[in-house]
Design brief:
single chain, alpha+beta, two-stranded antiparallel ribbon, 1 helix, 8% strand, globular
Length: 49
């Protein structure tokens, strides 16, 4: 799945998104050590496909 978002400041958007994940404001997504968003997560657990 891909999500396309048009923005004039992609760096700030990505930083804000990752910060929201780190602060548990966004609970359904996570990212790996490379900064990729491999699959949605639910409550810190991988959501089954």
């Amino acid at each position: 799945m891909a999500i396309y978002i048009l923005t004039s400041n992609p760096t700030a958007l990505l930083k804000a998104f990752k910060k929201a994940i780190d602060e548990s404001t966004i609970l359904t997504w996570g990212y790996d050590k490379d900064g990729d968003f491999p699959i949605p997560q639910l409550n810190g657990r991988i959501r089954p496909g």
